[in-house]
Amino acid sequence: MNRNTTEVGSAAGGAPRTAFAILFAIGFVHLLNDMIQSVIPAVYPLLKDNYNLTFGQIGLITFVFQMTSSVIQPFIGRYADRHPRPYSLAAGMTCTLAGLISLAVAANYALVIVSVAIIGAGSSVFHPEASRVAQMASGGRKGLAQSIFQVGGNGGSAIGPLLAALIVLPSGQRAILWFVVAALFALGVLMRIGRWYGRVIATRSHRSSAVAGLPVFPRKTVRKAMTILVLMIFSKYFFISCMTSYFTFFLIERFGVSVRDSQFCLFIFLAAVAIGTVAGGAIGDRYGRKYVILLSILGSAPFALALPYINLAWTIAFAVIIGLVISSAFSAIVVYATDLMPDKVGMVAGIFFGLMFGLGGIGSAFFGWLADRTSIEFIFQVSTLMPLLGIIAAWLPNIKQPR
């Protein structure tokens, strides 16, 4: 990454430049990070057989991972807003690497829980700081920048189950060690991003505040909008958690597909999520983030409602449509929230990434508990009601977004 082509700033009074090299680099590391993390749900069938687990215990694995990925994120983001640390991203990836090795060699269920908790802690460090880097490199095109960053994560989430099906499931739990290569490569990239980050901090320390002149919204407006956005995250990620954790089991039980084929179907859904993410940020920059949020979540509802009642071919087709539509919301939500509080980018990103992981973990544990007491088919009938909550996005305030 050449300093002359990636430095964010203004040329002699010109407009800020978008540092695409940094954006694509942080997006690529996000891909590697979330690819590693997506191995956890992808190997659930293997772990279930190895340790004779119930669906409730599987849900607990996701709950522990998601909670450790979420609870401390806002605090890390708040600290980073006040005291940015250029190499904290590399420290987070080191934590993820340690958890990955531990998961590969875990000999019992308790060690699996500890391993996913360590991986989750690494994620807590990575996401708010990486989101700050994306906005610093945006050159004012925040929706696009957040989408580039987010699509990396979604792409990694899609690739992880595919690689697990090809590498881990045929060879066993120890084959998870192959993903160590990805973690080491990510560490190298993050060290270079850390050097760029340090230069930007040094440059900005000699300038006036980066948020000077940005609009300050009334507290009532901020509270109302943040409440609605939290409900949007709840509706989206309770549904997504069911799809991510139990879609493979749904396909196996309802249609009798093999474990390997169910993993490929999960990959197709997650790939659709990755593709749909790109559009959300750019459309939000152009037409307004409120409308992206509304149409994304509510627009997926008719397809989600039909999902438990159709044949295999239509199930895969509708899963693709749902992934494409619902995935555009998150980038728009994060940028909308940072527009409301432009001086707290790290904290806001930490809150919403934390909610994404935390609510996803609670949703997975809840649906696992419910599946043990009812059936996999029943939890899909319940979870597919969640996108209907998207209607409340119509009450989001219309804010003038800084450009």
Helix content: over 70%
How many β strands by DSSP? 0
| Portion in strands | under 5%
Gap from first CA to last CA: 26 Å
Enumerate the spans where pLDDT stays under 50 for 5 or more consecutive residues: 2-14, 206-213
Order of helices and strands: HHHHHHHHHHHHHHHHH
Structural class: mainly alpha
How would you sum up the major sheet?
Answer: none
Question: Helical element count?
Answer: 17
Tell me, briefly, the overall form.
globular
Q: What does the radius of gyration come to?
A: 20 Å
What is the average of the pLDDT values? 81
Gist?
With 403 residues, the chain is mainly alpha-helical. The protein contains 17 helices and no strands. Helix 4 packs parallel to helix 7.
Q: What does this protein structure show overall?
A:
By secondary structure, the protein is mostly helical. Helix content is 77%, strand content 0%. The chain contains 17 helices and no strands. It has helices at residues 3-6, 20-42, 44-51, 55-70, 73-82, 88-105, 109-136, 142-171, 180-204, 219-255, 259-287, 289-299, 301-306, 312-326, 329-340, 345-373, 376-383. The protein is globular, with a radius of gyration of 20 Å. The two termini are 26 Å apart. Residues 2-14 and 206-213 have low confidence and may be disordered.
Keywords, please?
globular; mainly alpha; 403 residues; 17 helices
Protein topology:
Elements lengths: L2 H4 L13 H23 L1 H8 L3 H16 L2 H10 L5 H18 L3 H28 L5 H30 L8 H25 L14 H37 L3 H29 L1 H11 L1 H6 L5 H15 L2 H12 L4 H29 L2 H8 L20
Helix pairs in contact: 2-7, 2-8, 2-9, 4-7, 4-16, 5-7, 5-16, 6-7, 6-9, 7-8, 7-16, 8-11, 8-15, 10-11, 10-15, 10-16, 10-17, 11-12, 11-14, 11-15, 12-15, 15-16, 16-17
